[in-house]
Amino acid sequence: MVFQKPPDGGWGWVIVVVSFFTQFLCYGSPLAVGVLYLEWLDAFGEGKGKTAWVGSLANGIGLLASPVCSICVSTFGARPVAIFSGFMVAGGLMMSSFAPNIYFLYISYGIVVGLGCGLLYTATVTITCHYFDKRRGLALGLISTGSSVGLFIYAALQRELIDLYGLDGCLLIVGALSLNILACGSLMRPLESSDSPPPEKTCLDKVPDQYFVYHEKEKTVEENISILEKGYIDEKCANNMPDYKQDSILNKNVLSSINVNEKDTYKKKVVEQTNFCKQLAKRKWQLYVNYWEETMVLFKNKVFSALFVAILLFDIGGFPPSLLMEDVARSANINEDDYHMPLISIIGIMTTVGKLTLGILADFKWVNTLYLYVTTLLMTGLALFAIPFAKSYLTLAMLSGILGFLTGNWSIFPYVTTKTVGIEKLTHAYGILMFFAGLGNSLGPPIVGWFYDWTQEYDTAFYFSGFCVLLGGFLLLLAALPCWNACTSQSSKMPPNTYSYKVASSA
Questions:
Q1: What DSSP string runs through 233-286?
Q2: Which of 58, 168, 50 is nearest to 109 (CA)?
Q3: pTM, to two decimals
Q4: pLDDT, tens only, 340-357
């Protein structure tokens, strides 16, 4: 399909608005799941580790299934995928209100809602990249704040709805609000060329006729006449025979000539079809081998290997606060009357500030984005170590703000990846890193919850989280110090703002 030149405006700004609200509506509840987490603990009486799987699946399954999400958007388009995913998110939230046990929530909230969010993220990023070129970085930055604003608002909204209508009523209302994604998705008009060429033939149509075994052209009149003439000659040679025998010989000659020709043609085409299939299988196998060879080349890069470990450890240790901070405050026996704002809301608004601030810093030529990213990792680890010492709402609010700001380092992660592997290998490398980021998101909260179930306190759990993040930061720092110049010399010299939207468009 041939697309028009990105207009960098016009209907593109409508796409930005609806994409912002799509991410706001789909990610609001999963990111603010910490409020629901407390209610599920009381409702089902399960351990913190088992209950934490619900929120971790909802936030991690979208990253784990990112290749599937990309294939769906490429095959069906952004608008159909967005509408279908809107039904998934709304249906998953509404079904969760009828959950009889925690295992039902694993499916309804964790997998259904999580997969719907992953599809919607890919759809919004893809359609935005189609409409913007020069202003693509700005457009993607605007729509990415939708999830952070959703976290800020949904944390307070879900708490208020629980107080008024209970947990089941809250999930029903939030699910009904998510149906507005259908309206947003319907406005994602694809950017197609008005004078696009006729659709290309499918792969099956492109295969030459000689490779089809059962494709037989109808015989022409001349061919039929020649067959009859051959039969007539045979008839003259046997003119002394009775009429019924002559007719029998004529029929046999005609049938035998047809059968011999068809058998030869069939055998020939079977051989050709077999060779064609062998060549096709060989090509597919070669592509598979090349993919794994490129993967092994990536892991030979010391900085990339350290980055892969760092992102996994960061998500294992850095993601749980956004899910468990409300329960940390309740475990510290902090009076709810002291709450001026939900801690999760503070994390959400400061994440928005962090994304914008760190993104601006990364644009300065004198700022080394890799060292900036390492700094955020080390500071996150120190903040996690400080959580066990916070015994008041004020200190927890300050730490929530710091952690939220540092979590905004996601905005510079594409820069770091590009500097590490180069723009040519960016798509391949970023897909691998996002898979392990999703794995860390899925494992982090349950691990912290299991630590609490084991020790009956969060101190050990957050010491473990801080150790994981610090370990990843130090490993990345050690790998970057001797190899940084070599890595930057191999990467393409493109503007930093180009890296961000190239990555987002391939996510």
A1: HHHHHTTTS-HHHHHHHHHHHHHHHHHHHHHHHHHHHHHHHHHHHHHHHHHHHH
A2: 58
A3: 0.67
A4: 788 888 888 898 888 888
